[in-house]
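It is worth pausing here to work through a concrete case rather than discussing structure prediction in the abstract. The textbook approach is simple: state the sequence, then state the predicted structure, then interpret. We follow exactly that order.
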Amino acid sequence: MLRVALTGGIGSGKSFVAEYFKKLGIPVFHADEVAKALYSEPEVLEFVDHLTHGRAVQRDPEGKARVDFPSLAQIIFSDPALRHTLEAFIHPRVRARFQEFCQAHKEAPYVLSEAALYFETGLWKEFDAVILVTAPEKVRLERLVRQRGMAPEEAEKRMKSQWPDEKKRPLATFHILNDGWRDPIPQVQEIHRRLLNGAISQKVT
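Step two, the predicted structure:
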């Protein structure tokens, strides 16, 4: 069974691509969603509380704690060192969940693991192939503002915290352009065909 990473900058549309792979019968592990769920675990809450000096953890009147994700995002995307420390704590836990996911779907021809920062963290090297979804920065910015309701300044900050597509593309096995003009679905279908045939030695862009 092949293990394939699916990644792309914020606003690139990788979630849309992931959903289409699901329609093709491919199991998709949403690493970022799994990571977010981990923040409800006591040891993770404690770590975040300590790392951010209480600025990203809220407590209700009964003392129950929860991570304030907007505050956490603002803190870590303004401080790369803190972000890297947090990632080093979270990623091994996500990796363990992915191993469990692969075991549960070991009969599949391949599984996808979707996440935004596989190149930035170096985790892309752990996969048999990497699918990169890209879109022009202007298109991504418009999507983030229109679809997610983000302020342009915040959207730009998030985009700049990630590698530019020009740096990622040479490392990717497959490339899907999702610019709003070229249909990504035939691109997904072709990549699916190649993965079923085990054709990952030659890069496709």
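Step three, interpretation. The first strand starts at residue 2 and ends at 8. Residues 15 and 114 are 8 Å apart (CA to CA).
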